[in-house]
Amino acid sequence: MAGHHDMREPERNDQHVPTEVGGNEQPPPTAMGQGQRQIQDQVHNQPRTVAEAVAVQDRLRPLTDLTGPGPRRPATVAGLDVAYAESGDLLAAAVTVLDTATFAVVDQAVSVGRPAFGYVPGLFAFREMPALLAALDGLTIRPELLVCDGHGLAHPRRFGLACHLGVVTGLPAIGVGKTPLVGEWTEPARERGASTPLVDRGETVGRVLRTRDGVKPVFVSVGHRMSLDNAVDQVLALTPSYRLPETTRTADRLCRDALAAALASAALPAAGPVGTGPSRVDTIAGSGPGDAATGEGDSGARPGDTGDTGEGAGSGPGDPSRAAGGGPGGAADRTAAARPA
Q: Where is this site: Interaction with target DNA (predicted)?
């Protein structure tokens, strides 16, 4: 990754309060360059049926750039993750921006709201997009690369969350999944850096990558404006000590703590039917490095997602991924992951 970069702490608007997406209040200037209108468009254009959602994917899929090559030495990389309440009707989305020279969090933002779509395998992006875009719009530093906790091309319709976010934001994006959504593969060698192709219906849609010796691999796929080789290189650079990228680890902690704070507060987003139209999303921008939101929270993972520190090879409850050492034909070859992309 890059050498040391001068990553000065950005100025923050400490008076900025949570805002409701679709409201009249204007947010402070952001690094994403999209502003409130971009988020409003995404919220109000949310599909209401499975057929409408599939049509959106079909319309946006040709816009993906799957060759890149993308940034080789990005100075800043963002991780994105979402945590859900046990009830499934409240979520917290988080984005953390890391300095790739030090892995220090130099910017971050969270949003809390209701899922914007039903729980449908292959359409999971529609549940989370409004909240993730709201969090992205709260950043004061524009990241050079998005690393999504999910999939990109390795998707039944070749348009997972990483593709969707990349196309909407225009940023290079990759997906790093804990478990596969599609495809067959052979187990890579036990050494860190070993990989094998992830193949679905005769097409290579990703790479099964070992990021730690003897620990189960991750599933890397291109989202937008990246090559697969470069995506693999970036994931290896972001995993110096653990199975999962540092971007995912920091975003995971932040969204879990944001969810816990929301559940402890009386000011929850307005209730409403889940997956039947636009959701309310409250945004908290730029909480900043060293904030309590980066603590070791442990509540509210995605449905079926038990979290992962990268310390061991076990799958954990609710995770259908096969045990290390299994080949094609394991449980994950036959069924979709518990947390679909």
A: 119
